[in-house]
Specification:
15% of the residues lie in helices and 37% in strands. The longest helix has 28 residues.
Length: 494
């Protein structure tokens, strides 16, 4: 199986959003394996237009009309963007006060756009084009565009989106509560409520970014275990629920019960549960849930400084630039070791929904984020950053290096003409920062090195039935507050 990461729910200026479709697809190719850029298409039960709701109703309807007028052109652009190592899907979004919001995902490059009354009706109308409908930002108030579990159909929705820029819809106690203008998270609309009712579905995440930057770091990504890196294999993995949700870091998760992978439904009394995690930062905890209660919580022990592999994250940003982006040109070299990987952690400019004061801008996220070189001893990349929106909300960019070596391995970093030399041993003790100017300056942070014993985890758990139908899933939490939620395995008692 191949582990692939994508974003199957995000927006740009092709409806009510910002940034060109071409720039969105180019950004997706920089750090994703698959993508669907999603148009806003319909809202069958849109509220009645009143003076107070005029802007809300008008910008939605204008966006729907814009997508419809360009639909054939948009399909062609999306289809043409597919390449050997980049997979594109077609689809669009349906708002609904009654059902909750869903997006349609399809493999058909000739997918029709047809106004419909419900998620099920939408799939009927686009047939014979293959499709599934995925509920998103599901945790809002029922009847207020939160998911309606009374109307949910797992046969047309094999996965649900549990995390995006809106927050985390797993449960009342999940991290990342909802703070959008659409309202708070309501426990009646969370994934836990659906599992309590006995529905079977997998987990995905996507950004719901509205400014043409699919996969924007920290806003949500979907992980799939596919038999190969093709559209058909990714599609099959989603149908089989071999999926999980990550907030940003590409945490590698394997989870099985009696050898059956995430998403499976099996019958067994003796349960042999395997969990294998390769994280991107220090693991804080790995929690195995059974029937929505922690069965086991594993905390990673402190690790010794030995030869092996290390994660070293180079983060860029800070400063006071707002409208104009700040360009970073970076080169890293290693002595006494080698680079195994360089994972991009690039963000797009932070836009979630339109406002009356906002203006269309096709170039809003046409950013210079790119890894140009990744060899055994050299990594070169550029990035563009902006001022952090607040002291607790980042707008930084990063590249996470995997380095093979020892505490004596030396890292040489050149950033916009400034130089830093540091050993892995020094980084195991603490991080190192470097400023570009004397005050309120843009800065570079080389994070504390993470040895492989602190970012790798394996466990085997034995268990027995509790009910006729038990549900197991895994949550991974890193110390940098990046998460993974791994799709359940559903186990029936013999």
């Amino acid at each position: 199986m191949k582990l692939l990461f994508g974003d199957i729910h995000n927006h740009c200026g092709m409806t009510y959003g910002y940034g060109s479709l071409e720039h969105a697809l180019a950004a997706a190719r920089e750090q994703l394996d698959f993508c669907m850029v999603t148009g806003h298409a319909m809202w069958p039960d849109i509220p009645e237009r009143t003076p107070e709701r005029a802007f809300l109703v008008d910008y939605h309807k204008a966006g729907f009309a814009k997508l419809k007028a360009r639909w054939e052109e948009i399909r062609a652009i999306v289809a043409a963007a597919a390449a050997e190592e980049f997979i594109t899907f077609q689809g669009y979004e349906m708002h609904s006060s009654h059902y909750g919001d869903y997006h349609l995902l399809s493999t058909d490059n000739h997918l029709p756009l047809i106004p419909s009354a419900s998620p099920k009706n939408l799939l009927e109308n686009v047939s014979p084009s293959p499709g599934i409908v995925i509920p998103h930002h599901m945790g809002y108030t029922p009847g207020y565009r939160g998911i309606n579990w009374d109307e949910f159909d797992e046969t047309i929705s094999p996965v649900v989106e549990v995390y995006s820029k809106h927050g985390c819809g797993m449960s009342d106690g999940a991290p990342y509560p909802y703070y959008h203008t659409m309202g708070p998270r309501d426990g009646r609309s969370t994934a836990w409520e659906g599992l309590r009712r006995g529905y079977k579905f997998g987990f995905v995440a996507s950004t719901d970014h509205h400014a043409g930057y699919p996969g924007s770091y920290g806003d949500g990504r979907a992980a799939v275990w596919a038999e190969e890196a093709t559209k058909e294999a990714v599609w099959d993995a989603i149908l089989q629920r071999r999926t999980y949700a990550v907030t940003g870091d590409k945490i590698r998760c394997q989870f099985s019960v009696n050898g059956a992978p995430m998403g499976s439904e099996i019958t067994a009394d003796a349960r042999d549960i395997d969990i294998n995690v390769e994280a991107c930062d220090f693991i804080d905890s790995v929690t195995l849930y059974k029937n929505l209660k922690p069965l086991y919580v594993f905390h990673q022990p402190e690790s010794a400084e030995t030869e092996g592999n290390y994660k070293i994250r180079i983060e860029l940003g800070w400063g006071k630039n707002t409208e104009e982006g700040y360009l970073w040109e970076c080169a890293a070299c290693v002595r006494g070791g080698k680079f195994l990987d360089a994972e991009p952690c690039f963000r797009g400019r932070n836009v979630l929904s339109p406002a009356e004061k906002d203006k269309a801008d096709d170039d809003v996220n046409n950013l210079r984020n790119h890894i140009a070189v990744c060899s055994d001893n050299s990594v070169e990349f550029t990035a563009e950053t902006f001022k952090n929106p607040s002291s607790t909300v980042p707008a930084t960019a990063a590249v996470n290096l995997t380095v093979s070596g020892s505490p004596k391995t030396a890292l040489s970093l050149e950033v916009n003409g400034r130089q830093m030399n540091v050993t892995v041993g020094e980084l195991l003790e603490s991080s190192r920062s470097m400023h570009m100017d004397s005050y309120n300056s843009h800065a570079c942070l080389v994070h504390q090195a993470v040895p492989d014993t602190a970012y790798r985890f394996q466990a085997n758990v034995k268990d027995t039935p509790q009910t006729e139908h038990d549900v197991y899933y895994v949550e991974v939490r890193q110390k940098n507050e990046q998460y993974a939620w791994v799709s359940p395995v559903f186990v029936n008692k013999k």
